Amino acid sequence: MRWGLILILGAAAMAATHPIPRFPIEPPVLSITQPCQWGMPFTVVGEHGAILGQQDGSFEAWLWPTKVLSEFRITAELEDHP
């Protein structure tokens, strides 16, 4: 009996929900940008870890002393660009 009541109340709550309306996303006030230089290395190092890679999208990640990601690759495809 309890589960039936819980399901009915849950369904009523879901029927009353509405999506959040769109809102404008402003660009950040401070930003650092640099064009990608294919094949050039990049390094991000902190007190507890590092990301080491190439600007072709391949990298590895460390949380000292353990390698978390090895031979990882990320790609991005933009509309109207190869």
Explain what you see.
- It is a single chain.
- With 82 residues, this protein is an alpha+beta fold.
- The protein contains 1 helix and 4 strands, in the order αββββ.
- It has one helix at 2-15, and strands at residues 41-45, 49-54, 58-63, 66-73.
- Strands 1-2-3-4 form a 4-stranded antiparallel β-sheet, with no helix packed on it.
- The longest helix is centred in the first third of the chain and has 14 residues, at 2-15.
- The chain is elongated.
Architecture blueprint of SSEs:
Layout: H1 2-15, E1 41-45, E2 49-54, E3 58-63, E4 66-73
Antiparallel strand pairs: 1-2, 2-3, 3-4
Report strand %.
Answer: 25-35%
Measure the end-to-end span.
Answer: 59 Å
- Ranges where pLDDT stays below 50 over 5 or more residues in a row are none
Q: Could you spell the SSE succession in H and E letters?
A: HEEEE
Q: What is the radius of gyration?
A: 23 Å
Averaged pLDDT, please?
Answer: 79
Q: What level of helicity do the residues show?
A: 10-25%
Order of strands across the widest beta sheet?
Answer: 1-2-3-4
Largest sheet: 4 strands, antiparallel
The strand count comes to: 4
**Principal-axis shape:** elongated
Judged by helices, strands and strand pairing, the structural class is alpha+beta
Total number of helices: 1
